Amino acid sequence: QGNKGVLQLKSICNMLTNHDAKVDRKCGVHVHVGGAEFNRRFSIIMLKLCLDIESDIYKLLPESRQGNTYCKKLPKQLIERMNFHNYKETLGEIIQNCVISREYNKKKGHPGGHYNGQRYYWVNITNYSTATGSNTIEFRPHSGSLDFKKIYNWLLICMSIVKFAENRQRRIWTSSMSKHPITLREVLKYSLNQKLFNQVFEYCVNRANRFGNTLHL
């Protein structure tokens, strides 16, 4: 947690590197973020936000993470029609591939068990949506790495997404009707102080350029 956790992460990365640990295209960096009010409203807003910035997110990723079955893109049509009236069907399909009901809800265990197929979207909300999961949201798309700076920047991106979803819900809800859709840059600009924003967005731009991509501004 906090600065102590960042230093611990740096120490782990250094230790693994010093002992010649290796990663390959089969590896990934999964980030869990806790501490938010994980409820139905948050889930719907989060999915709509992540759909908005999905293009930018995948511009930061190597070929091995494009179309990867362990960090799939979100189901666009399903999320676009998701609202606070049809959530039992639409949100239920994403969480557990069945309608939210007395038999299948947040107080129950996941019908597919821990390794259920619904967890493999790049943003995974199944953890906090059942009694058997951790109270966190998981971000799965980043490729494996031992580079502390790379992982730290990705961690700040994930935390920024959660903060934006918590505090900019009206902006997210009306984004589809706006002339200016939400971009990753907007999310980072809102969520980080100026120094960290400059650092993280520069990293994102350079990362996208590396793969021949340009981020939305």
Give a quick summary of the entry.
By secondary structure, the protein is mainly alpha-helical. Helices cover 47% and strands 8% of the residues.
Helix and strand layout, with pairings?
Elements: H1 2-18, E1 28-34, H2 40-58, H3 76-80, H4 87-96, E2 123-124, E3 136-143, H5 148-167, H6 169-173, H7 184-191, H8 194-210
Antiparallel strand pairs: 1-3, 2-3
Could you describe the 3D structure shown?
The protein is mainly alpha-helical and 217 residues long. It has 8 helices and 3 strands; from the N terminus they run H-E-H-H-H-E-E-H-H-H-H. A 3-stranded antiparallel sheet has the order 1-3-2. Helix 7 runs antiparallel to helix 8. The chain starts with a helix and ends in a 7-residue tail after the last helix. The relative contact order is 0.17.
Helix segment count? Answer: 8
Quote the distance from N terminus to C terminus: 31 Å
* Rg, Å, rounded: 17 Å
Secondary-structure element order, N to C: HEHHHEEHHHH
Helix content: 40-55%
